[in-house]
Amino acid sequence: MRNHGSMPVALFLAGCLGATGAAAAVPPPDSAAARQEAQRLDKLPPVTPHGKAPVDHSGRAQKGRASFYSKHFTNRKMANGRRLDPNAPVAASKNLPLGTTAKVVNTQNGKEATVRVEDRGPFVDGRVVDVTPRVARELEIGKQGVAPVVVKPIAVPQPDGGVKLGAGAAEASPQEVRRATEVTRQLVGSND
What we know:
By secondary structure, the chain is an alpha+beta fold. The protein has a single domain (about 55-190), classed as RlpA-like domain (Barwin-like endoglucanases), CATH 2.40.40. Helix content is about 25%, strand content about 25%. It has helices at about 10-25, 30-45, 135-140, 175-190, and strands at about 60-70, 90-95, 100-105, 110-120, 125-130, 145-155, 165.
C-alpha cells in the first residue's frame, strides 16, 4: 500500500469505499431509480429457495408452493413476537426479511393477495410461504392445502434500516407501493 502522507489510513479507506459504496446504495422507494430497479427485478426469473437459504434482501421474486397455517397456530407467537391472527394478511417465509410486504399470486388461478412477512417457515422443501386462512381463502388454495405460487416482494427492509422496492413494486400502483413501504417501515420499527 502506498503512503498517503499524513492522511490516516481509515480516512483513506473510507474515501475509497465511499466511492464504490455510493453506487451500491439503495435508492429511496419513492424515486424513479427505485421503480427502475423494481422493473429490472421483475424481469428476472423467480428463484426457488431450498433448505436453510440465507435471508434475501434482494427483492427478487420467488416461486414454489404455498400452504396455510392450521387452526392450532392461532394466537401463537410468530418470529417477530406478535401473536398469529388467522384473519390478518400475514405470511411466514424461510428467507424473506421479517417486515417484507409482498404480493402472493396463485399461478393455478391468478388470484393474488398482499401479505406481511411476520414469521419464519414453512419448513418443508419446495414451499416458499405459509399464509393465514384468510389469505388462503383469497388465493383460493382450497381443500388441497397447497398451491403453486409466485411471491413478489413489494417493499423489503434492508440491513441498514432502509427499504428497497422489490419485483412486486413493478406492477403495483404508486398508492400500493407507498402503503407497502409504510407498513414495512412500521413493522421493522416496532421490532427494535
